[in-house]
Fold these 2 entries.
Entry 1:
Amino acid sequence: MLVNREISPGIYHVGGIDRRLSRFENMFPLDSGVSYNSYLIIDEKTALLDAVDKSIAESFYASVKEVLGDRKLDYFFINHVEPDHCNTINGILRLYPEVKLVLNKKAFDLLQQFYREEDYSQYNEPIIVKEGNVIDLGEHKIEHIFAPMVHWPEVTMLYEEKSGFVFSADAFGSFKAPDGHLFVDQVNYARDWMSENRRYYWSIVGRHGKQVGAVLQKLAAKEIKGIAPLHGLVFRRPEDARMIIEKYKLWSEWQPEEKGVVLVYGSLYDNSALVCDNLAALLAERGVENIRVYDVAETHSSYIIADLNRFSNAVFACNNYNMELYLPMDAFLRDLMHMNWDNRKIALIHNQSWGGKALKTARDILAAGKNIEELCEPLQIKSSPAHEQIDDLRAMADAIAEDCK
Ligand code: FEO
């Protein structure tokens, strides 16, 4: 028994859900699963838009068969070759050996790299598309919009003229398995989904903000009525599509969504943790509403990076370990700057017992950002905060709170 829902007349969702996968790309924790979306258009010609992960292969094949009924499959559009969408391609080709693959040259090359044993030439000549090519299915016409490096080089978005839907590949997608609902307008998206959409962006796509900006410019020329990504919920109302595009505009420029302070500390014996918790309390006293405090050794970087991009200000408490920057903080800051984090005001706390390079190393790593500005002098701690340093901490809180207004 399968429920395959129409997202627009003649366009069906044929994806599925995996609640067992614990880490996406073997890196990013999944607290509540993930979904894989594929779409099937029934018109004078039929077309399958992308496939799914092998974890849901059997239900996917069954869905495609059920929606197609006695129709043959004419076209199979491959818009992204990462295996979470591609390792069921070969299964579809065996079920429908007459289908024509539709993809760009880079996608075809990558497909052959991933599946070297497969001879794709036995399944007809693939249609190798170029930017702007339109495939006519009857009432539905599908235009190719290339989105290189969002987040792989071959990525293609499709704009379907009749429905006004953009099939956006990974972009606009989210971690999290849907609880029955398929559409953004059926849930409280801001409350229940946005944090996982944001974390998905800053895990998967965020490094490539310039390329995101480039594809947003191409999309600006289209009348977009809906967005159908490869993960997460479908945006079927124009206002929902606009909402997530606006978020992507901010994110692609590394602009904060809200005023707020994220404090990230490394701490062996909770002395730096104590300083950060006191600073957070002083910020709260000064009226800062959005405050998040993270132990860098406890929380996966994807959650912290998402919040550092959501909010305007940051504090990093950098302690020394073997005279170097505490390794979890070192790894975290490199991870953060790998995502090209920028446009933020920061404050630094430095903890040393007998010397070390932690502060210099942290500054060197953060220097990769062109517009990362220290609001005040670092607070220097020797092993544990001295009582009289509360005045320095208050001064730091004053500077951050003032900037946060
Ligand atoms: Fe969902 Fe880049 O694969």
Note: The chain has a mean pLDDT of 97.
Entry 2:
Amino acid sequence: MWLILAMMEKNMLRYFYFLVISVCTLSFAGCGIKNTPPGEDSVTKELFAMDTYMSLTAYGDNAGEAVREAEDKIHELDRMLSAGNEKSEVSILNREGISTFSDDSINILKKSLEINAMTDGAFNPAIYPVMELWGFASGNYRVPGTDEINDVLAHTDVSCINISGSDVTVSDGTKVDFGGIAKGYTSSVIMRIFEQCGVTSGIVNLGGNVQTLGEKPDGSLWRTAIRHPVDDGYIGVVNVQDKAVITSGGYERYFEEDGKRYHHIIDPSTGAPSESGLLSVTVISSDGTLADGLSTALFVMGSDGAEGFWREHSEEFDFIIMDGQGKIKVSEGVSGVFESEYDYEVVKR
Ligand code: ADP
Ligand code: MG
């Protein structure tokens, strides 16, 4: 094996590593990118942050600088936004009830509250007490009783979150969790960094959450594969430019007890893993933060709820969903750029 590697040309080796890393990204991330391998005019960086594998690629003259700045920003946001890091701004808020937020944390909190309002609470940034109860925060998983669930649900009211300038307070045991939106916010911020560096073509994959800038350097669209939630392989491929393609699936984080699977997307109305019947929700939008928040929210809403919600907001996003029976629905706005070997229904406005 090593002998074969040693015999390869340098460029071939680079391509080989890219393939290996891409395969790893696919298997860990749930959603993959199919793009051209990095050439002389591109820079790709693979890293682990926010509890997931990430890949950043920028093309053109300033690609190196853009990717370096993006990497620094990811680590900065990770330190700031993780409820599991006791020094983070959100962790201080959850522990002390008060915290001074940086601009990024304020932005993400405000956007979270907007998405909470527009989704009628299906996206709830105050879900952290429920995540703790089920052990998703610590890894000590357990199935809590109904009384315990009802007790913590009383502390998930977003009206207990108060913002005054850069000061944030929470009352009544409320705790904030950006886990459902942080990666989408981060990919949006990276797109702005790429642009500021003069990059016009790039793609990032943050643990299955993809965001693209411009077109591929050859002028074609980015081909983003959506992982099948049950079988090996993909639901299909969506071809995009300047868009985020963000997937939520119960298969991403879960535990099993007595033969039943409990995943990490919580229905805020029950305080338990959502049983909406959906297995995978992909949201496509030019706004990565919105796409991430909505992927979680639509998962909770279920198929009919997601359809109805999309009809009210079809200018802002599109979706690809799969339910437990394997039925795939694709909203009209992306049906023309979606390819799949499976049958699917196009949802019309
Ligand atoms: P992933 O992080 O696997 O990409 P999601 O974007 O759907 O998937 O985020 C799931 C995370 O969001 C959970 O781990 C938790 O931190 C948080 N979360 C769970 N349920 C909700 C909810 N209803 N509203 C907002 N955040 C949620
Ligand atoms: Mg999400």
Note: Residues 1-40 have pLDDT under 50 and may be disordered.
